[in-house]
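Final report, Chapter 2: Outcomes

The project's central promise was a pipeline that accepts a single protein chain and returns its three-dimensional structure in a standardized token representation, suitable for archiving and comparison. That pipeline is now operational. To close this chapter, we reproduce one record exactly as it appears in the project archive, with the input sequence first and the structure output second.
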Amino acid sequence: MTSNHSLLTILHEHALAHGDSIAHLLSDRVITYRRFWSRIERASARLQGEWDVKAGDIVIYWGLGHPDAIILYCALLRIGAKLFPCEDCDAEYVERMVEKMHCDLVVHDDALSFSVGEARSLSALLADWCHFDPVVMQDESSTPTLYLPNLSGNNEEAISVGELMQNIAVLEQVKDDGTIRVDGPIFLKEKLTQLILPVLIARRRLLFSLIEPL
């Protein structure tokens, strides 16, 4: 498992073979692996077909660690674009990053609002089906697709999904029912490689606890 193809293929295979298994939980909804993959397809279609995101583009996610941001990342992988997460940041920081990273689109949690440039809500990404057949890009496991916080606290360390997959940890602290709890920001290297991606790859379930859910 060393490429973004491997990650997306695993999720797709889970959807086909274990579609009724639960991928993640919120207080108001349950997302199965079948629905998880369907939402990735819907998001990639909307990003490319309606929001004009192209391969190589950088999209900012500004939010509080909503699980649909994982859908956003997978959808961007699928169409060859990149994610720059700004979690638990203020609007001024996001504005600076939009200019610095030359981002054309900010996708934000509904609990937040952003008025600079092109901005869309995370719920709008998945609101309904998009009737567009996106061009799915060839896998480039060594291409940086995610910008993670570095030691200075700025999101400037670019990492590929191949690097993430190579550092997947063995699952620990699994509840009796196979559920693992996730709190706070999603896009931290340790959290992705030791918690979120291992759970999804192992077809377990994630329980998200949000202060302000969509």
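Archive annotation: The beta strands are 22-26, 29-32, 58-63, 82-87, 105-108, 119-121, 146-149, 155-159, 179-183, 205-209.
This record, like all others produced under the grant, will remain available to the consortium after the project formally closes.
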